[in-house]
Amino acid sequence: MNRDLNYEKSTSSTSAAAAAAAVVVVVVVVVVVVVVVVVVVVAVVVVVVAVVVVVVIVVVAVVVVVVVVVVIVIEVIVVVIIVILVK
């Protein structure tokens, strides 16, 4: 009879330890998943910001080129008009 009680105590403590270990494993898995999700989200945000910066740089470069071309065309037109008027 005494052995049965000891057996029940040992099995209940073993199952309690197993339950505690299972809880720890679940918590660790949840923490790892959350960390991975946060890292992925941060990486996606960094990539999106980098793409936006590159697009802005390209747009600014195109605008600068267009402005330079327009200024050159205007200067050529002005020079042609001056040459025609001088003749």
Helix and strand arrangement:
Layout: H1 2-86
Task: Describe the overall structure.
The chain has 87 residues and is mainly alpha-helical. Helices cover 98% and strands 0% of the residues. The protein contains 1 helix and no strands. It has one helix at residues 2-86. The protein is rod-shaped and about 110 Å long. The chain starts with a helix and ends with a helix.
Distance between the termini: 129 Å
Number of helices: 1
Low-confidence region ranges = none
Assess the beta-strand content as a share of residues: under 5%
Total strand segments:
0
Mean pLDDT: 88
Backbone shape: rod-shaped
Helix content: over 70%
Oligomer: single chain
Largest beta sheet, briefly?
Answer: none
Rg (CA only): 37 Å
Global structural class: mainly alpha
Order of helices and strands: H
Transmembrane segments: 21-47, 53-86
Keywords: Membrane, Transmembrane, Transmembrane helix
Organism: Elysia marginata
Protein name: ABC transmembrane type-1 domain-containing protein
Main features:
87 residues, mainly alpha, 98% helix, transmembrane, membrane, ABC transmembrane type-1 domain-containing protein, transmembrane helix
Short description:
This protein is mainly alpha-helical and 87 residues long.
